[in-house]
Structure formats: structure tokens, C-alpha cells
Amino acid sequence: xxxxRSDSIVKVIDVIKTFPGARKxxxxxxxxxxxxxxxxxxxYRGELxxxxxxxxxxxxxxxxxxMHLLLPTSGEIHLNGVQIxxxxxxxxxxxxxxxQMVYQNPFDCLDPSMRIKGxxxxxxxxxxxxxxxxxxxxxxxxxxxxxxxxxxxxxxYPKEFSGGxxxxxxxxxxxLVEPQVLIADEIISALDVSIQNQILNLLIRMKExxxxxxxxxxxxLSVARRVSxxxxxxxxxxxxxxxxxxxxxxxxSDPYIKDxxxxxxxxxxxx
Length: 271
Ligand SMILES: Nc1ncnc2c1ncn2[C@@H]1O[C@H](COP(=O)(O)OP(=O)(O)O)[C@@H](O)[C@H]1O
Ligand SMILES: [Mg+2]
Known about the structure:
CATH topology: Rossmann fold
Strand order of the largest sheet: 8-9-10-5-11-12
Radius of gyration: 20 Å
Bound molecules: adenosine-5'-diphosphate, magnesium ion
Shape: globular
Mean pLDDT: 93
Number of helices: 9
CATH class: Alpha Beta
CATH architecture: 3-Layer(aba) Sandwich
CATH superfamily: P-loop containing nucleotide triphosphate hydrolases
């Protein structure tokens, strides 16, 4: 982990996150819980890094630390060579545009009381207060086209769209401010398989067109295997393997990964 590649954009060094136990009665406390147990990895420019792991293994906790929404208990997080884990929110604000997140539930980022036009204008107004109305509309038109959304969606409210369309809108909103890193946390988990594929294709297209780094979080091994340039497998707060899908899912991998792979093949009847 000492030598970084020159195209490293995110570097995580030995990050630990412990949640304090909840208070029980007047003096009691449930034990502390360590959700992320000393995780280290890098993300490179223009790659789709899959983060695969079962529910509860610490994926979202890790994502929230990258987003500076949760602070690590210890360890370092570097974004473009700048250590962010200890930064006060006021200093991180300037960097926040560089790393955007899309969630499993689109309503976590789309205010249901706003029309799509307002939802897309909002981040541009925040990040580029001097941008003219004309440029703003041009940027919105372009991103709608890139994300396969019709112009007439602008006058509608989020509840008028299907889950797949809402994820397109969430992706458009995140990418409008031209981040370098996109975190996609289980964004296709609630969608039908055919719609899942459309969203995956959109992500891959955007990655290539904008040289974007994507952390694609999923509990679905076959999806992780199919779309990732590199994949990282997490279990109980630890990284069990990282590399190309062929490397990670090879015969030599960690026993946990072998079990995962054989379970999937058995389950799908391909063993
Ligand atoms: N704020 C919190 N306080 C206490 N425990 C938490 C908190 N957030 C997450 N956890 C616990 O940490 C573990 C990992 O959660 P999470 O990162 O959401 O997993 P994943 O996204 O992989 O499903 C879970 O056991 C969860 O209950
Ligand atoms: Mg999660």
C-alpha cells in the first residue's frame, strides 16, 4: 500500500469504524460494534470497482466514510492526494463535488415535493452560482440525453416515474456537477432484471465517456463479476480479496470467496 499508482484517486489506509454501544438503562451499555475492521484499498481513475458483500458486512458504512458523512474511528482516507478524514466539514465542502453518491432508494436524494427541473437545477445552482440560466439548461439537456431521459420529464414529480427512471434521474443529478468519483450503493437492487441491465449499461457508458471512477456496491456476485474492472470482496468488515474478477474468483482465492462462488453456481444450477 506504500506505492500509489499515479492514477490513484481514492486511497484508503487501515480504516476502522467502531459504533459505540447503545445506552441501556441508567448505567448499562451494549458492547461497541466494529463494522469496518482495518480496510485498505485504492481506486483508480476511470475504473469500475465492485464492492461485493453480504448484507450487514459494512459496505454502506465504508461508502459513508468516503463521502465524509461518517468519520472513521482510525485510519486515513485520501481523495486526490488530500487527506479528508480529519477535515472539518467547512473545509471538505470544497471537495464534496468531486465525490457523489447514488442510493438504493432514490427518495434518499430526490425531494418528492420538487419537480425534476428543480431537482436537476439545484446542484448546479449550489456548485456554480455564477452559471447563466442558458448554460444551466444546456447542461441539463445534455445530461438528460446521456442518461436516456425525455425532455418532458422536467415538469414532472418523482412519484410519476418508475424505479428505473428514478435511478436514471438520480444518476443524472449526481453526474451534472462532474464528479471524479461516483458511489453507487445497491442502486439496482430494487429493480427488475431487464431494468437492472439498462442501468448497468448506463453506468458503464458514463464511466467511459467521463473517465469516471465508480464504486459499485452490490450483494449480487454475478453482477459484480460481470460489470467490475476490479472487484473487492468484503466480509464482516474486512476485505477478503481485491483484483480483476478472474483473479478474485479464481481457485486460489480466500476460502470465503470460494464458498460464495460455489454457493452461487450451485444455486443457479450451473455447478
Ligand atoms: N449508526 C450505526 N450504529 C450502530 N451500528 C451501525 C450503524 N450503522 C451501521 N451499523 C451496523 O454496522 C454493520 C454494517 O452495516 P452496513 O454498513 O449498513 O452494512 P451493508 O451496507 O454491508 O449492508 C451492521 O451490522 C449495522 O447494523
Ligand atoms: Mg448497505
